[in-house]
Design brief:
448 residues, alpha/beta, FAD/NAD(P)-binding domain, Enolase-like, domain 1, 3 domains, 7-stranded mixed sheet, 31% helix, 25% strand
Length: 448
Amino acid sequence: MSESYDLVVIGAGSGGVRASRFAADRGASVLIIESTYLGGTCINAGCIPKKLLSYAAHYRNDFSDAEGFGYDPHPATFRWPRLIAAKDKEIARLNEVYARILREAGVTLMRGHARIADAHTVMVGKEHIKARSILVATGSRALKPPIPGAELGITSDDAFHLETLPDRILILGAGYIAVEFASIFHGLGANTTLMFRGEAMLRAFDHDIACHLAEAMAEKGVVIKPSMSIARLARNSHCLEATLSDGSTLMVDCVMFATGRVPNTIDLGLEQAGVELGINGAVKVNDRYQSSVPSIYAIGDVIDRMQLTPVALREGMTLADELFGEGLLKTSYENVPTAVFSHPNVGSVGLGEKQAIMAGHTVRIFKSTFTALRHTLSGNSEKTFMKIVVDAISDVVLGVHMCGPDAGEVIQGFAVALNCGARKSDFDRTLGIHPTLAEEFVTMRASN
């Protein structure tokens, strides 16, 4: 005999769990189905473990910087297995937290692989489950490029489970995952090469920010190879041999592919149920997250709008309110703040300079490059770069961008300002907190 629920959610990642909790809070009977771990990519193979590794990678520079402040640090020895074990312990704890959250919210959790049989039926093994509404929140998965020997390389998912830290690593990709892992591996002591086919990294970000980051990473010792790719991989007796697009070869211990993620819609029965998918497998939805089948919805990475955890969380809340609440919550995709936990960090909200011009704005640009107070004693040559993009006619601030320490922490507050329609004159009349990095954003007066 099949059970019946108001909402069946496929995928217990950030968006699926949030939608489940909010729906249950509004009186819905909810079942969530997960075939692997709870918390999705963010908790298990993304935001959380990646930032833990990023923290670890900062310490080598911190030890060096401390000498300028009077410390005589003893030589530090890094143990990769110890870091991975500590990370695994924390991820296991968070999985238990997610299970408790679902349990306390009254959401039923089922383990197994779900397939959609029809508009109101989900199958897990031989069990049929009826649903008034079905939500697909299965996230995305990493891809390897179609080159000979690609199976010899790893993806970002695999990087969290390496048994040893590679001495030499080649990372292919230009997005935030690639630059974050390049910073992590280099910071932990690996000889790191970052390679990408285009001329610049972080193409979705403001060009000046991307250029500043590339220069900063190169100065730290990351080897950056633009306009280059891998033609094939082969294993010899001691290492991996990467043949590059220009015919040269590079000997490394590990190759990591960070060339993108695609919506995870394989073997879910979506097409057979009549759900329309995009070219890359993304579920096509309307502004209510409704697919071509009215009772089937989708949110998060699987719809390929913005692959960001806070966006998936908001979409989950919005959908639950739409289905079981008053329908007042909305998800805006404008002025979404984001951070890249590279070394140094990048933080950004709003439009970059080129984006603003392409959107029809006449812009004024404010920039500042300076040495943080900390580094006047540390001897570290790292510079902080900040940029404000302003509409020249209305004085409205269109974008705020930063490359420097704790950029994500700084930008979060300015995201509030942009969503309130702040003007450059509002920035100018705001007093800064001295001495801080953030005060630079309210003291820039001369446009470039």
